[in-house]
Design a protein that fits this description.
Helix 10 (243-253) packs across helix 11. Strands 2-1-8-7-6-5-4-3 form an eight-stranded parallel sheet. The protein has helices at residues 18-31, 41-44, 56-70, 94-110, 127-141, 143-151, 174-184, 195-200, 205-212, 243-253, 272-295, and strands spanning 2-6, 36-38, 76-78, 115-119, 155-159, 189-194, 216-221, 258-261. 45% of the residues lie in helices and 12% in strands. The chain starts with a strand and ends with a helix.
Length: 296
C-alpha cells in the first residue's frame, strides 16, 4: 500500500492566498515524508483556485511540474462532486457541474492519476421505492463520464456514502457499489471505501472490504464517533472505529492501492506554522497502520 494524504489541509483562517494554497500544501506534505498526495479537484476548481479559470490546462501542467520537482505523485485523487441536496436542486447549473466533472477527469489524465474518486448520485429517495430508480439514474448519468475517463486511461472509483436525512441512501453499502460496478463492467471502474462514511452508516467494514475484494481500488482513511451525519474526518484512533479488523481485511484481500488519509480537520484549526509538525506525525501514523496491516 502507498501512503497518501489529501491536498486539502489548511483551514479557513489560513494566511496562504487561494492561488498559492495547493503549492504550499504539497511542499509541506513532501517535507513531512509523503510521496503521494490525493488532489482534491473539487477544491481546486473553486473560484480563485488554480483550476477555476480558462488557463486550467496551464495550471494543471504547473501542478504536474511541481509534483515532479518535489518527488510527489498523484495516484489517487478526488473529482468535483455534487453535494447531496444539489442532485435535486433545480437551481443547480447541470452544464457547469458537468464541465467541472469533465475538467477533473482531463486534469487527472494529465497528472497520471490512476484512480479518481466520485460520489454516486443521490436522489434522496426512500429505499423501498427509490433505489431502483436511483441505480438506473446513476448508470445513465455516469455513462459519458466513464467513457471519457476510460478513453484517457483514468480509473473511476465510486465512494460509499452515509445516511442522508431520514433514511438510507443509494451507495451506502458495499452491495450497492458492487452491483453498480459490476453492471458497468469495465476494469477501470471500481470502488473507493471511505472508513469514516462507513462508520457513520453503521457498516460492517471488514465484511464489506472482503465482499468488495478486487473491486476495491482506493481508500479514504479517517475516523469519527459514529454519530448520525457527523463525518468528523478525525485522524485514526481519535474516534471509535476499531482498526485492527479493517487492517486485517485489507491484508486478506490483497489490497495494494493508496492508503489515503483524508484528514481535512487534522490541520484546519492549527496555525499555518504548526501544520508541518502535524503532517510529520500523520506520516508516522499512516506508516504504522500500513505496517500493522502488512505484518498481520
Amino acid at each position: 500500500m502507498r501512503l497518501s494524504i489529501t491536498s486539502t489541509l489548511l483551514g479557513p483562517g489560513t494566511s496562504v492566498p487561494p492561488g498559492e494554497n495547493l503549492s504550499y500544501c504539497l511542499k509541506l506534505c513532501r517535507e513531512a515524508g509523503f510521496r503521494y498526495a490525493d488532489l482534491d479537484f473539487g477544491a481546486l476548481i473553486r473560484p480563485g483556485f488554480p483550476l477555476s479559470g480558462e488557463d486550467w490546462e496551464e495550471q494543471t501542467e504547473r501542478i504536474g511540474r511541481q509534483g515532479e520537482e518535489l518527488g510527489l505523485s498523484f495516484d489517487q485523487s478526488h473529482a468535483f462532486v455534487y453535494r447531496t441536496r444539489e442532485w435535486t436542486d433545480p437551481a443547480v447549473d447541470r452544464g457547469l457541474y458537468g464541465d467541472r466533472i469533465r475538467r477533473s477527469i482531463l486534469a487527472a489524465a494529465r497528472l497520471k492519476v490512476r484512480w479518481l474518486v466520485f460520489h454516486t448520485a443521490d436522489l434522496d429517495a426512500p429505499p423501498d421505492d427509490g433505489f431502483d430508480k436511483t441505480r438506473a439514474f446513476n448508470l445513465e448519468y455516469w455513462k459519458p463520464f466513464v467513457g471519457l475517463a476510460v478513453r484517457n486511461g483514468v480509473g473511476i472509483a465510486f465512494e460509499n456514502l452515509f445516511m442522508s436525512g431520514r433514511h438510507p441512501r443509494y451507495g451506502m453499502t458495499a452491495e450497492d457499489l458492487m452491483n453498480l460496478v459490476d453492471t458497468i463492467g469495465d476494469p477501470l471502474v471500481g470502488v473507493c471505501w471511505d472508513t469514516g462514511h462507513a462508520h457513520v452508516a453503521g457498516q460492517d467494514q471488514p465484511a464489506s472490504i472482503r465482499l468488495l475484494g478486487p473491486r476495491l481500488k482506493a481508500l479514504h482513511v479517517h475516523d469519527n464517533h459514529g454519530r448520525p451525519k457527523a463525518d468528523e474526518h478525525l485522524s485514526p484512533y481519535r474516534g471509535t472505529i476499531v482498526w485492527p479488523p479493517i487492517l486485517k481485511a485489507l491484508r486478506e484481500t490483497g489490497y495494494s492501492g493508496n492508503f489515503s488519509l483524508e484528514l481535512k480537520r487534522a490541520t484546519a484549526e492549527l496555525p499555518d506554522a504548526l501544520c508541518g509538525d502535524m503532517l510529520r506525525f500523520l506520516h508516522r501514523l499512516g506508516r504504522y497502520m500500513i505496517e500493522q496491516a502488512e505484518a498481520g
